[in-house]
Amino acid sequence: MTKTAHYPFIDKLWLFSTIYIVWFHTPPRFEAGTDNIIWYIGVALFFFISGSLFHSDRLAAKDFVARQFHRLTLPSLVCYMAFYLLWVFFGRYHASVEDLEAQWYDPLTELVTGQPNLVAAPLWFIVTLLVIQGTTYIIRKKLPLSVLLLISICITAFSSFIDINYFNIHFASVFFIWHTLGICFQHYLLPHVLTPGTPVKWITRIKAAGVPILAFQNYVIGCVKILLSALCAYDLTTAPLYAKFVVAAIAFVITTVTALVANEAIKKIPYQPIIQKKN
User: Fold this and answer.
1) How many CA atoms lie within 13 A of 3 on its CB side?
2) Is residue 239 part of a domain?
3) What are phi and psi of 197, to 5 degrees?
4) Is residue 91 part of a domain?
5) What pLDDT digit, counting tens, does each position of 140-151 carry?
6) Distances (CA, A) of 228 to 25, 231, 250, 256
7) Which of 8, 21, 180, 225 is the most buried (most CB within 10 A)?
8) What's the total number of domains in the chain?
9) Is residue 94 part of a domain?
10) What tens digit of pLDDT does each residue of 221-265 get?
11) 120 is in which domain, residue-wise?
C-alpha cells in the first residue's frame, strides 16, 4: 500500500461509526449488559480505523510530535477551552449536582491530568488515542510489528489489573489491541481486500471535523432531548420509537453542521510547529 492510496470504504466505515456513536447517546437505552457490549464494539471500531490509518511510525520523533499536536491536540484544546468557558458562565447552573459543587478550576485540573469529565467528556477518546499512538510510535521505532502485536495482547489481557486514571491509561490498556489490529490490517490485508479510489468529498469534510464532532455530540443531543421533552407531554426516554429516531436524526445533523463550522474556525488559527526544521 502506498502512502497516498485512499480507500473510500474506510471513510464509509468511519461515517457509520459516527452515526452509531451519536445514536448510542440518544434513547432508547439498552439493558446494562447489552449497552456496555454495544458501547465497547462501537469504540473499538474507532480505534481499529485509527490504526488502519496510522502511518506516523515512519516519521522522525520531532515530526511525529508536531503532527499529533496539529491534528489532535490543538483542535481538542480549542474545543475544550470553548466548552470550559460555557461551563463556567452558563452550563454548570443547568447541569448536575456534581457540576454545581465543582470549583471553577476543576475542569482545568482534569485537562492537565488528561481526564476530561465535567467539560467535553467525549474527548476522553482523543486523550486515549494520543496515549495509544504515542506508545505505538515508541515501540514501532525499535521493534517489528509482530512484537507490537504480542505486547498489545499482553496489555489488553492484563487491562483489568491496570487502574491508572491519569491520561485514561486504563482505557488505553483496554483498546490498545484494536489499534494494533488496525495497523496489522493496514500492512497485511488492506491492499488485498479493498480497492483504492477517489475520496467522497462530503464524507471527507465530516471526517475533517472529527474532533469537534466528538466534543459537540453530547451537548447537542442533550439540548435536543430537553427541547423535545418540553414540547411533548411524555418523557423522551419512554417516547414512541419514531420520536427517538427524530432525536437521533436531528442530533446528527446539528452535530455535523456545528462541527464543520468549528472545524473551519480552527483552520484559521495560525499554526506553528513545536519544533522547527533546520534549513
Assistant:
1) 5
2) no
3) -160, -170
4) yes
5) 988 999 999 999
6) 15, 5, 11, 19
7) 180
8) 1
9) yes
10) 777 766 766 666 556 666 677 777 777 777 777 777 776 776 677
11) 8-199
